Amino acid sequence: MVYKNDTKPVRAGEELDTSKIASFLRETMDVPKGEMDVRQFGAGHSNLTYELSVGKKWKVVLRRPPMGPVAPKAHDMEREYKILNSLHPVFPLAPKPYLYESGNLIGRPFFVMERREGLVFDQEFPDGVAATAELDESLSETMVDRLVELHAIDYKETGLREMVKPEGFIERQFHGWMKRYDRARTDDVVSGERLKKWLLDHIPNSPDSSIIHYDYKLNNAMFSKENPSQMVGLFDWEMTTVGDPLADVGAAMSYWIQPDDPELLKTGLGKPPVTVQDGFFKRDEFLQRYAEKSGRDLSEIHVYMTFAYFKLAGIIQQIYYRYMQGQTEDPRFAGMNVFVNNLIEHAEETAGL
């Protein structure tokens, strides 16, 4: 990064065996001579992502599952590698993957991909970038337009057609996330039974299936240094599949915080994202542009958004469960039960309960 350092020293307990990985990469890639430096991307809460560099010119990104036991079928590095392999040729915002290692080297699988350079808009504007209403609006438009473009790709023309089962996607999602929530539930979070019943009574009729990112949010995108409203990279494809595109829109809206949201929703994962600034789209404006650009009917979007808040509660609860089980010592996770309860409450309000 030029304007803002997006990596930090590796957190205690999450170190890599640098010597072993450097030797492996030198056997399989064209790595220049010199000491390999390892830093960690600090924004994520799930998989662990590192920058590996030698000097100033050679940089790659390594991604691996979190420490400790992980939920079945979660944090599947081989699947994410294959998704990037299929998507990069038709959607170049997805970084190019270089190699996959099945777990023989460090005891856990990982993959290595290209390092993109640019600006990340997270909780603050990058250093050197002025926050203006015009830029806020342009960033909002870009986020909508790239999502519409992703949803317009014919997945049957990509390798994803061999990896997915789009039939019955939304039903499986509703039932699957309820099971995951229950399995990870701790005594200090609500059961959400009333919400789960409402969701099962309102399973929507899905439009035609498309490729969905399913973790589409501003800080998973990277923008040009020369033109800060131009997206140059899109990351975290772990949850990508083929399914209901409106489920992707709902998930994106669950991350898109606006100024009049409840304080506990704004600050659940720390400082609010920059989308709380007045120039950014409100969720209604985001949805209106998506409907205009995609031609899709959003009359049931409140169901998708209700489910998205419930699903986000499930994701956060899985992280909190790992923390409570002593599988991670990351102090950011200590109070996540409060956020889970707030998300369930907000989902109920979105449903009109």
How does this model look, in words?
- Helices cover 38% and strands 12% of the residues.
- It is an alpha+beta fold and 353 residues long.
- It folds into two domains: 7-114, Phosphorylase Kinase, domain 1; 119-351, Aminoglycoside phosphotransferase (APH), C-terminal lobe (Aminoglycoside 3'-phosphotransferase, Chain: A, domain 2, Alpha-Beta Complex), CATH 3.90.1200.
- Helix 4 runs parallel beside helix 9 (301-324) and helix 9 runs antiparallel to helix 10.
- The radius of gyration is 20 Å and the shape is globular.
Q: What is the averaged pLDDT score?
A: 93
- Helix percentage: 25-40%
Counting structural domains, the number is 2
CATH class of the largest domain: Alpha Beta
Shape annotation: globular
Strand order of the largest sheet: 1-2-3-4-6-5
Strand proportion: 5-15%
* Number of β-strand runs: 10
Q: Determine the CATH superfamily of the largest domain.
A: Aminoglycoside phosphotransferase (APH), C-terminal lobe
Give me the secondary-structure category: alpha+beta
Question: What is the N-to-C order of secondary-structure elements (H for helix, E for strand)?
Answer: EHEEEHEEHHHEEEEHHHHH
Rg, nearest Å: 20 Å
For this structure, the CATH topology of the largest domain is Aminoglycoside 3'-phosphotransferase, Chain: A, domain 2
Write the CATH architecture name of the largest domain.
Alpha-Beta Complex
Largest sheet: 6 strands, antiparallel
Distance between the termini: 45 Å
Which regions have little confidence, pLDDT < 50, spanning 5+ residues? none
**Count of helical segments?**
10
